[in-house]
Design goal:
Blueprint: E1 2-8, H1 13-28, E2 32-39, E3 42-48
Antiparallel strand pairs: 1-3, 2-3
Amino acid sequence: MRQTWILTQNDPSAELLNQFKGILASLQNGARLNESWQEPGKLVVELWEAEPE
């Protein structure tokens, strides 16, 4: 399953921290980084999460 995270420079610090924690948890649970890119004021991270067996 694909999961896309969009982090912006206007996000409150606590929200950015929660998003980074979510990305890290997904990676620790077997997700793979598919793509990431930057746009003005944004960082976009796309993960492919492991399918449940």
